[in-house]
Amino acid sequence: MNEIIKQIRPALVALLLFTLITGVIYPLVVTGIAQAVFPDKANGSLIERDGVTVGSELIGQNFTSPAYFWGRVSNTGGFPYNAGAAGLYPSSGSNYGPLNPALIGEGGVIDSRAKALREADPITRTPKFRLIW
Asked: Which tens digit of pLDDT belongs to each residue from 32-64?
């Protein structure tokens, strides 16, 4: 029994030590440095209006240049993730099913977005895709 304790004790000490270092000390040091060097970005680049946080500069950007990743299609209004869109649940999507023509049909939301991407970047071979269920 004494032999087992001699082997387990260093393992438990190492576990506690590395948990303390990597789970507590390191995150606090990195967070402290980030807060000191660039506090706005460290807090998520939040957007405030009238003292109320309304979003982040980094989430829901509507890119139209092929140099950037285009976010998924959003049904919330004039721009993606529009928390101010009209409706009962303004930042939610639609109740359209996956085969609804308004989404996948000719001139649907997804078709229109794919055409816009092909027009913005004609060199890249964006396949004319169809959803197969």
From this structure: 999 999 988 888 888 888 988 877 777 766 677
Q: Is 40 left (phi over 0), alpha (psi -120 to 50) or beta?
A: alpha
Number of neighbours of residue 20 by Cβ within 10 angstroms:
11
> What is the distance between the alpha carbons of residues 27 and 11, in angstroms, rounded to a whole number?
23
Against a cut of 0.70, is the pTM above it? no
88 half-sphere exposure, CB direction, 13 A CA radius:
2
Query: What does the DSSP assignment read for the chain?
Result: -HHHHHHHHHHHHHHHHHHHIIIIIHHHHHHHHHHHH-HHHHTT-EEEETTEEEEETTSS----STTSPPPPP--SSSSTT-TT-SSSSTTS-----TT-HHHHSTTSHHHHHHHHHHHH-SSS---------
Residues pairing with 52 in the sheet: 49
Measured in degrees and rounded to the nearest 5, phi and psi for residue 19 equal -65, -45
Cα(37)–Cα(43) distance, integer angstroms = 12
